[in-house]
Amino acid sequence: MAPPSAVSPERDANDDSKPSTAAPHEPGLSESKAKVQMPKFPGPPSFADKYAEREYLKGRLAAAFRIFGKYGYDEGVAGHITLRDPVQPDTFWVNPFGVAFSLIRKSDLIQVDHDGTVIDGGKVRLLNAAAFMIHGAVHKARPDVMCAAHSHSIYGRAFCSLGRKLDMITQDSCSFHNDHVLYESFNGIVLAEKEGRDIATCLGDKKAALLQNHGLLTVGETVEAAVFWFISLEKCCQAQLAADAAAGGRGHQTVKIDDEDAAFTYKTIGTPKAGWFSAKPLFDVVEKECGADFLQ
User: Fold this and answer.
1) Which of 145, 121, 126 is nearest to 62 (CA)?
2) Interior CA angle at 219 toward 106 and 227, to 5°?
3) What is the DSSP string of the chain?
4) Rounded Cα gap, residues 11 and 184, in angstroms
5) 92-126: per-residue pLDDT in tens?
6) Burial of 154 (0-12, 13-18, 19+ CB in 10 A)
């Protein structure tokens, strides 16, 4: 017998009680209700004044570090998030080396040109060489990237030791369907310009990279998107590590989402605007918790 969602009885043209063929996996859902669409996502603010945009974005970058600190993505002095400067697009802002994520303020950020020279910023003007090598190469190769995030988060590090990409096993992992890469090399701390370029080349036009034996790297057209993709990728790594262990312990494998469904889901949750909007609650909370401290 066919399931209710597969039944298409004859009906009056004005009768909307017919089970929907537009949403066949929802038994009993009427066609009129199935036609209700997801609301349009709002977007980031726009600025006519590039200097005003710079100040706003530096505040968002400072908030991003507070979020990373809150989530425990700091590991000593490792980790960096960069912001392309809207006034001088061939430069970027980054955290000063050795300042805790959870203490970073807008005034602490330092501005770096693509020669690796600190040209402006706070009192501490130490630049993490690895931050420059990786992020400088990414920003140079990807004019669309406003922000890039890298840190040594625990589940990302663990998953990156496996030498494999994510499986599509959850709805959230579909955000990275055909939109992440595996960088299959590790040559120690990234202090060479060539390796930075190799990482940027491997990343290509994708939004995330799993750096083998190293950690996660995400990029975005906004600070918010890059931050959300990092947090989501970290949680996807955690989920897959747990799922693989549970399935393996029973002699089974995880159930994979097929390519068509993963691609369809990506169109809703994997877009740049979806990344920006998904991060909004994180930034709202950190603003409430920190007050105006990070904006100083």
Assistant:
1) 121
2) 50
3) ---GGG------TT-TTSBPSSSTTSTT-BHHHHTPPPPPP------S-HHHHHHHHHHHHHHHHHHHHHTT--BTTB-EEEEE-SSSTTEEEEPPTT--GGG--GGG-EEEETTS-EEEESS-----HHHHHHHHHHHHH-TT-SEEEEE--HHHHHHHTS--PPP--STGGGGGTT-EEEE----SS--SHHHHHHHHHHHTT-SEEEETTTEEEEEESSHHHHHHHHHHHHHHHHHHHHHHHHHHHTT--PPPPPHHHHHHHHHHHSSHHHHHHHHHHHHHHHHHHHTTGGG-
4) 58
5) 999 999 999 999 999 999 999 989 999 999 999 99
6) middle
Q: Phi and psi for 27 in degrees, rounded to 5? A: -55, 135
Indicate if the pLDDT at residue 31 is higher than 80. Answer: no
Report the relative pairing of strands 80-84 and 208-211 from DSSP bridges: unpaired
pTM, to two decimals? 0.86
Euclidean distance between CA atoms 294 and 279, whole angstroms: 17
Residues 6+ apart with CB under 8 A from 8: 18, 19, 21
Give dist(CA 149, CA 280) in Å, integer. 17
What values do phi and psi take at 166, rounded to 5? Answer: -70, 145
pLDDT at residue 59 in the model: 97
Q: Give the other-Cβ count within 10 Å of 90's Cβ.
A: 11
Q: In the block, which residue shows the tokens 């020279």?
A: 117
As a whole number of angstroms, the distance between CA 190 and CA 56 comes to: 30
- Name the residue with tokens 């262990």: 245
